[in-house]
Amino acid sequence: MKKIILEVILIAMVFSALGDTAERIKKYSGKNAKSLLELYSAKDTSAYIKFILDHSSPNDLAVLTPGYIKKNVDIALKSKEFKYSDIYGDDIFRHFVLPLRVSQEPFEDWRERFYKEIFPVVKDVEDIEEAAILVNIWAEEQMTYKPTHGKDQAPLTTIRRGYGRCEEMMIIYMAAARSVGIPVRSAGTPLWNFTDSNHAWVEVWTPSGWKYLGEPADRLNSTWFTRTTERASMINSTAFGYYDGDDIIEKKANSTQMSSIKYYTDQWDKCIISIDDENSMPVEGADVVFYAVSWGGISPMAEMKSDKAGQVLLPLGRGSVFIAAYKEGVGLGYSMFDTVEGEKDIRIALGKNTEVSDLDLNFRFLIPSSEKREKSEDKKYFEGKFELMKDNAALKRKDRLNSSKKTAEFASYFIKSYGCKEDEKQFEKQKTFLEKCEILGGSADSFLKVYKSIDKEDKKARKQKYSILSEMIAQWDDKELCEIPDSASVKNAVDIYFEGRQKYLKSVPDTIFYKNVIAPTWTGGQVVQNGWQKEFYAEIKQLRSENMKTTVSDVLRWADSKVAVDSAFVFEYYSGSLNPLNIINMKSVPEFYRTKLIDSALKTLGIPTSWKGSLEYFNGKEFVSVEAGKEKKEEKIAEKELRLKIYADGAQVKAEPWGNFQFSSLEGGIMNYSYFDGSSDSLDFLIKFPADEKKDLYVQAGIRNTNGDASVAVRKISQKEDSLVISLKTPKEYLDATSDFTESEIQIISSFSASLKEGGLKVILIRGVIPNEPTNRMTSLLVEKASEFKKANASLIIYTEIRDDDEIKGSDTVLKKKGDILIPETEDNEYPLVFVMNEKNGVIFSSKGYNMNIGDLILKKIKSK
Description:
Helix content is 36%, strand content 23%. By secondary structure, the chain is of the alpha+beta class. The protein folds into 5 domains: 41-243, Roll (C8orf32 fold), CATH 3.10.620; 262-363, Sandwich (Immunoglobulin-like); 405-631, Roll (C8orf32 fold), CATH 3.10.620; 639-728, Immunoglobulin-like; 737-863, Glutaredoxin (3-Layer(aba) Sandwich), CATH 3.40.30.10.
């Protein structure tokens, strides 16, 4: 006891001497606080270690150890030995080479491994741009693009998996580049605004300024999204810590947001948004929110605070944004801001009303440029060799991933788990399961090893454990499956789930157990799966009793004894995913982390949970509120239902959540997504949502034209209403690439269309000789729509020019063709080409390059014929 008291006194004395960083370590570092403080205060501790600790987020302080920090700093300093490292100063090194993380990925110990692997590739390189391109080729060997949910995966997980979305491509590249001393920063657009998507990529520091890259190319500033960025409303980059660079937007929460839009387009302006009160006086400290039109309505794109002059200064691309401003006690104000014609300033007056009235908003955007954009300083590298280098990297990746596929072995365990019924439903389930197993990458052997260990168990346990492991594979995202570090961690999870299943076998049906214990509670919001189950289970096992209600009450009390909710908690950009043990160590947490801790505990103990705007658990009869367990009573959350009808240009269309509508609430002046559930009833959608009279609720509905211009209706609803009708009108259309093709090129496409056996309308997608990310993205988008095209009497034909192409997968309704180049003058970055042909093989629409809306656009075209 005396020793503990002395340690507490020592820590307190050190805190008083070290200031804010020490207070943060004390608050968030838990069991590591003492050793981190000793490291921070030691006389021989380098300024680099202090820089990292000074700017680490609460999430990171809950995970970091002195050993991890020192090891990473030592290896980062070794990267100063490269020939190109002499051209930048220490400030660039600290902010863009030294950081331990890239974005919101969990910590993994990547730096030493990457340094050793990439060192031979760049050790003799003097040109930093050449080095950056070589690292991108290395990254191509590790992974390729595949869409997935929003939780970031760490670099070593990405290598095991072999796939990742754009943010994860950014993460692995930045980690690799930093390991060999190349300064890089994350960049991207929060939302494209003119289409329902966003994107993240990398900017590389060079002596002539920051340049960008995406998938491998033979120069910087050249990638498939180059022309897309010319239409962005906002492009930002981020620095770890407080950085004094150009075009600073905001320094906040230990990071610096900068505008990068000047590197991508000349069509931008420094815009001033002035916020006044009812008496025309400037309002300092107002929350100013910029909304893009996206996902069926408007979505927050950025949030800033007005300065002493009541202003926000922000570089914006040419287009439309919706802006709302709010300050408690002053009021709410909002307005459209259209910069297409070069408008630079707008004034918004706050009023006492704190509600948004019904709105009809019109967004317009620049028509995309058809000119090829090149800068003289963007030097080409590896002339005549680059495509071969890129292809070799892709082949190595494919060979590695193909060698990890064990389809036959997984198929045998599917039968052991589910039997061998010979019906269509079982065949489809097996097909989906095996497709999932094929993308486990380097983690496949870990799962097979656990299956084989189950083979040796007694018959009763064997059947149940086969099913548990197979349901994990079927229901977890492959990202989470590849996050699990080894077979021991997989087995721990299976054994723990098995114990929970046995405990509540009579109270919980199999269907609910697999859907609400095994399956994640949130898509993309679950804790990181890095092997925490065994230690966590040992911590909470004693909380489980025969009665589930009692167990829930005990878990709530336990959670509140471990963590305290900090209502003033500030989320920081550089914050990785945490597991339940990390959350416990963090101690002072946001409300949602407490919820995640409770959810993880209940699932680990075998109690089913679900999310309906708040956490619920299954009590043996129905799902009821978890928090009601505190009062020893059970409450089922009341639900409301609203029937939504949407009309577009006078005709009713199917109401599709996140496609043409979203459900929102207005809280603190910010309109954001609000939880809802529901189902389609013919063209209508029945919106089900938790009753809450305290919330201002809205339905937003939107429609775009082919250029991305949009009309959005925002309608406030009363919770007493049972139906809502919204009418939309499509803005005038401008975008069709048909005029860009010559008469002879149009004739070639018409002749090709006529040579096909398919009658009716045709949608022809042409994949170029050189495979690229936009082509693969759009192939997936159109294959997903193939069955809908067929219903509208249209065939989807995918034509690949003079190469083998194994990227085309999907519906049996897709016709796949291969042959010579059809349009010889097409640039590589203009692929894919899309042509919509009528019954007489005439072109009724065409496009070049990437277009996120292409599937819906084509459906409109063919349905109107």
